[in-house]
Design a protein that fits this description.
mainly alpha, two-stranded antiparallel ribbon, 14 helices
Length: 387
Amino acid sequence: MDWLRIAAFALLILYHIAMAFSPWDWVIKTNYAFGWLIPPMALLTPWRLPLLFAVSGYASRKLFDRSAGTRDFARSRAVRLLVPLAFGMVALVPLEMWVRVMENGYPHGYLHFWALDYWRAGDFWGREFPSWEHLWFVAYLAAYTLLLAGVLALGGNRAMRAIGAAADWLARGHRLLWVPVLALAAARLALLFVAPERQGLLRDWGGHAQYVPIFLFGFALAGAPRLWPAVARSWKPAAAMAALAGAVIVTVELLWPGTRVPPHDVMALDRAARTAMAWGMILALFHIAETRWNHDHRLRKPLAEAVFPFYIVHHPAIVLIAWYSLPLGLSAPAEFALLLGGTGATCAAAYLIGRRIAWLRPLIGLRLRLAKPARSAREAASASGVA
C-alpha cells in the first residue's frame, strides 16, 4: 500500500500542475489553456480523491493496530494531522490567498496582507475568507479519523465486530463490486439537488457521503484479510465498469464543457458514473498494489515518509512559481518544466530540511524523533573498546 499511496500523491501533484494549463478554473492559470487536457483530467478527477481516502483508511487501521489503545491512536492522529493543518493555515495557505487577491488587484504586499487582511471572514477582493485551500483534505481526514476514534472508544469491541461483520458480508460473491456502487450512487444522487456541491467541513454533505464510507472501507480492508479474495474476484469487472463510466464522464464533459450546466438527468448520470468509476478504480488499484507492487525497495521508506510533507507544500509552491513566472512569457513546455522542477525541488527541500529539525518535523506531518536514551558509562566504555 505504500507504493499505491506514493503513486496517488505523485499523481495528485501532476494533476494540480496540469490544472494551471487546463481550460478549467483553478487557483492560478498560466498563459495557456489546452483543450486536449480535458479528457485525461476528466478521467482522473472522479477517483483520485476517493483513492486517497481509501488508502488513508487502510493506513489508519494499521496505525490503530500498533497503538496502545483508542486514546493513544486518537492522540497520535491528532498530532500528525491537526498540527500540520494549523501550521499550513498560518504559514502556507496565506501565500495562496495573497496570490488570489492579487489577481483581483489587491494593492499591498504579502506582509501587510498576512498581518491585517488574511484573518478575516467573508468576501474580500472577490475571494471568500477563511479558506482551507488544498488543506481541506487534511481537515476532512482529521475529522473522519477522530470521529472513528470516538466511535471505537464508545463502542469498543461492538464497533469492531460491526466492521468485521460488514466485511464478512461484503466478502461473499460479488457483493464487494455492486453493493458499494449502488449505496454510494444512491447517497450522491439523493443529495445532488438538495445540498450544494461545495467544499467545506460543515456543508459538503455530498462529499462526506462518498468519502466517509470509502475511508471506512480502507479501514476495514486492512483488518479483514478475507476481503482480499473478494477484491481479486472483482477487480476485472471493476476495471471494466470504470472504463465504461469514464467514457460517460468524458462525453458529458466534452458536450457541456467548463461551467456549462447539463440537464438534470444528464447531471445525475454523470454523478452516478463518477461514483462507479471511483469504486471500480479503487478495487482495481488495490488489487494491483497487493499483487504487483507488494515488494520492498530502499526508496520505499523515505518516499512514504516524504508523501505528507510534499502534499502540504506542493500547492503553494505551484501557485507562487506560476504567479512569478507569468511575466516571463515562457513557452508552454518551459513553463511546465519550471512548475514541475520548481515544485519538486521546493517539496524536496522542505522535506529534507524539515526532517532534520526536531521542532519542524511535526509541522510538516512527520513523527517526532524520540531522543535516544543516554548510555551508561560502562556501556560507553564497552562500545569504545575500553572494557
